[in-house]
Design brief:
Elements (H helix, E strand, L loop, with lengths): L10 H13 L8 H22 L4 E3 L5 E3 L1 H19 L4 H13 L4 H7 L6
Length: 122
Amino acid sequence: MEYTMSKGLTHRTRDFMKSVLEQVQGLEGIDSGALSMLEYNYDVFIRQSDILKDEDMVITNVQGNLNPNPRIKIIKDAQIQCLSILKEFGLTLKSRTSVKAKTKDSEDSPLEEFIKGKKETR
């Protein structure tokens, strides 16, 4: 499947999406929606994080009370969406480790090899 990134993305988002596309195997047309959501949410995460660096984490509302900067929730929501999609594609550390462990477990144990008649070579 050929995936075309949206226009207007940050360079960091483009680089990230290129890495994602290099890592994911067997993409089909149906996956383009999830990739678009990942691209959008990651770009929101990057843009809002960059803006928040220049702002305070806490703002004063009209009553004079301190409240968290609303960008924090936007960043958090985008991060949650990104991680959810990355898990679906098997691109988090935990999901990659789980896949490797399942692959390793699928090999025959020495007992299974003996029962199946495989000879051990030394």
